[in-house]
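We modelled the chain as a single entity of 184 amino acids. Its sequence is:
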Amino acid sequence: MDEATRISLKDQFNSLLVQAIEGRRGGMALMRVLEELDFYNSPASAKHHLNVPGGLVMHSLNVARAALELCDKMPQFAKCNKGAVLTAALLHDVCKAGQYIKKPDGSYRYEDSHLMGHGEASVSIIKDWIFLTDTEALAIRWHMGAYSGEQDWGTLSKVYDRCPEALCLHMADMIATHIMEVEE
């Protein structure tokens, strides 16, 4: 991904983020923190989808677009709070920023410095800077779905029953990862 593309993606992301968190105290500080964490230049994964500089911001935009499309086109998600879905989609993987170490062969290694799951870690980082609604926090926390581990399966079902935004975000993340971002 070239520099012009990364700049364009950053601009698109920031425009949507400003729209999503408009009026929240700390919003501009969060945007500076994303810059400091190298969010805009981080890959989305070490070995799989969008494992290139700028992949994380592209993935976040793909998830946001897929989530909003689910809200618009699936009656099951019509009652979702689209603002909460957008906020959660854009910020769901914040904890990945700056956690990838480039290896000599050009591939990446993920260095997980957080001692919690990646949904929880993202919520924790975001809440240091802006207020998240319970719906946003639940959606981000549970966006990994069953991939967070068997220990969470009982609670996961309850969350999805009570918070359709969490299920919407999970499905959008899967659509982005396994359909939109698959290399031919």
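As a brief sanity check on the tokenised model: The chain has eight helices and two strands. The helical segments are 3-20, 27-36, 55-73, 82-91, 118-127, 134-141, 153-162, 164-180.
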